[in-house]
Amino acid sequence: MAHGGEIMDGSRIQEVSPVIADLKSRFIAHEPYTQLRTQFDRLLYQRRSDILAGRMPEARGIAVIGNSGSGKTTAVERLIEKHPALNLGQDGSEVCEAVSVRVPSPATLKFVGETTLRSFGFPLASNKTSNQIWSMIQFHAQARKTLFVHYDEAQDFICNTSGKEIEDVIKTIKSFMQDQTWSVGLILSGMPALKDLLNLDSQLSRRFKPILLPTIGYTSHGPEIWEIIETYVGLVDLAVGKGINQKDFLQRLIHASASEFGITVEMITGAIEEALMAGASSVTKDHFIATFRSRAGCVDALNPFVALDYRGIDARKLLDGFDEVEPQRLNHAIQHWRKAS
Ligand SMILES: Nc1ncnc2c1ncn2[C@@H]1O[C@H](COP(=O)(O)OP(=O)(O)O)[C@@H](O)[C@H]1O
Ligand SMILES: [Mg+2]
C-alpha cells in the first residue's frame, strides 16, 4: 500500500476521527426500515384513537428478525429515538411512550424484570419476587403512559439458558399485552430463532407482525450497496478508486460482510477510515483489504477481497463481534419444549 510505511501522526487522527464518527452515525432508511416504520405507525395511531375513545383492547407487537449484524438494534433505536410523534419525556413530563431494554444476561424472568424497571428509571428491587417486579412494571407503564416496550435480543428473554422458563415468559408477555387497565405493545428484536419461539404459542404469534431484515445478495442489493459506497465516499470528499468499480468487487464485499446489511455498511466506513487515515485521495480495494484484515485478524489467504476462490471463506466466523447465526442451545430448547408440551 502506498502509505504503508507512514507513521500516523496525532493531528491526522484528530482530524479524521470526527469525520468518521459522523459517517458512523448516519442511518440508511432501507426497505425493511420503511416496513417497520409503517407497521409501528399503524399500531401507534390505532392505540391513540383507542385511548381517546376510552377503549383498551389487547396490544399488538412487532417482531424484528435478522441475523447478528443485519441492523436490528440500529433500526429499532432509530425508530424510537427519532419518531416525531412519540413523547419520550422530552417535554420534562413523566410521560415516556416508549422504553427500550437490552435483554441482560442471564435472561431470567426476574433479572429481565429488574432491568426493565431500571429502564423506567426505577432502582433495583432485588428483594421482590418475579411476579411482584412484573406488576411494578405494569404500574409504571401505566403511570408513564408507556405504549411500547422494546426488548433487544428477545430470543434470550423467551428462552434463557435453561429454557425452563419459556412457559412463564410467554405468560408474562401475554398478560403485559392484555392488561385490562393498561396494555403495552411489544417490539421484540432478535435472531431468527425468535420467530420459532413466538410460534410455540399461537395466541402469542398472532399478536406479532414479523419484519425481516434479510441477508443481502449481489442481485437483489448490488445497486443499493453501490449507491451507499458512492454517497459515503462523496460525503468525505474522496473519490471511488482502483478496484472498486465492478461486479466482482461488490460480490466480494457482500461475501466479506457475511451477507449482512449492517456489516456491509461497517465495512464501507472502515475502508473510508483507512483511506482518510492514510491521507489518500480515493478509496481503493486496498483499503477494504486492510479493513477486513484488521477486523478479522487473518492472513490474506482468508481475506475475501484477496483470495482467488473467496466463496468458501466463512466471513462470519472470522469477523469479531458477530455471533453465530443460530445459537445451538435455542434450537435444543425449542425441540425440548415442543416434545414436552
Ligand atoms: N440502516 C443502517 N444505516 C447505517 N448503518 C447501519 C444500518 N443498520 C446497521 N448499520 C450498521 O451496522 C452495524 C450493525 O448493526 P446492528 O444494528 O448492531 O445489528 P444487529 O443488532 O442486527 O446485530 C451498526 O453498528 C451500524 O454501524
Ligand atoms: Mg443488535
Compose a concise summary of this entry.
The protein has 341 residues and is of the alpha/beta class. The chain has helices spanning 10-24, 31-52, 72-81, 109-119, 130-143, 154-158, 166-178, 193-199, 202-205, 218-235, 247-256, 261-277, 285-296, 315-318, 328-340, and strands at residues 61-65, 98-102, 148-152, 185-190, 208-212, 239-240, 282-283.
Which features characterize this protein?
341 residues; alpha/beta; Rossmann fold; Helicase, Ruva Protein, domain 3; 5-stranded parallel beta sheet; two-stranded parallel ribbon; 7 strands; 9% strand; globular; disordered N terminus; binds adenosine-5'-diphosphate; binds magnesium ion
CATH architecture of the largest domain: 3-Layer(aba) Sandwich
CATH topology of the largest domain: Rossmann fold
Span from first to last CA?
Answer: 60 Å
Number of strands: 7
Number of helices: 15
**If strands are numbered along the chain, what order do they take across the biggest sheet?**
2-3-4-1-5
The secondary structure category is: alpha/beta
Biggest β-sheet strands, sense, barrel: 5 strands, parallel
The CATH H-level superfamily of the largest domain is P-loop containing nucleotide triphosphate hydrolases
What is the CATH domain class of the largest domain?
Alpha Beta
Number of domains: 2
Give unreliable regions as ranges: 1-5
Helix content: 40-55%
**Helix and strand pattern:** HHEHEHHEHHEHHEHEHHEHHH
Bound small molecules, by name, code or SMILES, are: adenosine-5'-diphosphate, magnesium ion
Average pLDDT taken over every residue: 91
Q: Can you tell me the overall shape?
A: globular
As a percent range, the share of strand residues is 5-15%
Integer-rounded radius of gyration: 23 Å
